Amino acid sequence: MIRIPTNRRAFITGAGALAAGFALPRIARGATGPGKKPILLTARQGSARLLETADKHTPIWGYRGTAPGPLLRFKQGQELWVRLKNELPQPTTIHWHGIRIDNVMDGVAGLTQDAVPPGETFDYRFSAPDAGTFWYHPHNRSWEQLARGLYGALIVDEPDPPAVDQDIIVIADDWFLGDDGQIHEASLGSIRDRAHAGRLGNILTLNGKPRGIFPVVSGERIRLRLINSCNARILEFRFEQLKPLVIALDGQPVAPNVLNNETVRIAPAQRIDLAIDMTGPPGSTHAITEVSQSRLVAGEFVYDPKTTRALRGTPLTLPENSLPAPAEAHSKSVDLVMSGGAMGRMEKASYKGTDYEIRELVRRHGMVWAFNGIAGMGAKPLFTARRGESVAVRMVNDTRWPHAMHFHGHHFRETDGPWRDTLLIEPQETRKIGFVADNPGKWMIHCHMLEHQAGGMATWFEVT
Ligand code: C2O
Ligand code: CU
Predict the structure, then answer these.
(1) Which of the listed residues 276, 308, 340 is the one where a domain comes to its end?
(2) Nearest-10 Cα torsion for 300, 306, 307, 310
(3) For the whole model, what pTM was predicted?
(4) DSSP secondary-structure letter at 361?
(5) Ligand 1 atom closest to Cα of 408?
(6) 178 and 153 within one domain
């Protein structure tokens, strides 16, 4: 029997056997050259086996009907050509998260394009300036469309990929299912989730499976690319006795460094690439556990019983992408103050040009958060920058909740910090980031906790 508590206090872990055969659905490589045919991604209904104990399948929405959708993989500088076909019952788009892309291809409904209506198609064609781990997902009703399973991995390979024995992509998602094993629809976009931590699931999957085996060989080196596709959950992974090194964050290489507290903490939309030397003996296992709530075995590395390989000595370093460094004396400084949410102090905010007292704003428009006193996308940008201008943004989290702040079209960094596209900012924390606004167009800034975004944590800037 499946039993799923809907209080969502604990993740479920069933008693079934581990699932083997774990890779992402693949599509042919090299089908993307100019003049060739587009890759067709149909967004449609499908089903997935999300529960370990059940033969039962859960209806989902997915690209080609699967969650995650097909792995898209191409070389740095090569062109990707994807044709989105919308067979969903509502309009959709695709956003290529983390790619420093042409603005018209950014996929933001209402800002860079109109959402694609049911039955219609839209062609995305772009090349990626940076090698690394990225992902794609809708940017229309994201809180619903991602919760239903629309997302996939987008990998841009280095011209000379560094030597590893396995390159493993892991997309982690939490799903909120009802007692019947179906996606809990009544709570989609609820005001409660908007005002608190967002929609937190009760089922954790890696690559769409409730638990899974990653076959490995003793002594080999793997590159593990972790992607958090949860609507709102900050995931925390541990790797038992293994000693992973962080080699990239949000697609951008960093000097290899060890984990804080031996834990990978990864906010929604963030990516972390790890280099792991598999030091267990042949025939043994190493659990991958998720510990944000309770200790849950999310998957397992299973060592081949016979084979071994000599450990590699030197650590893996990735070649840097070339990003423009912001000038020390920033020519433009902007403040972004977050307010609102449960237990917050926000009393009023403006929405679409009208000022509201907070209760009224929630009741009439479902808005519970604001940036600089403005809830939701305003008609005017937060700021305008000239192309090439250095911008500093001081983000003040004046709320009781953490937020995963994402900038479109640009990576940014704190002084001496790593390049990121999504930064987790803790309650009452202030973080100052800088970047060169070198990509013309209209770009969103929002919290990637998707219920927070829907509840008002969204704005945009323009590069002219
Ligand atoms: Cu991952 Cu505005 O997006
Ligand atoms: Cu948030």
Answers:
(1) 308
(2) 90
(3) 0.94
(4) H
(5) 2
(6) no
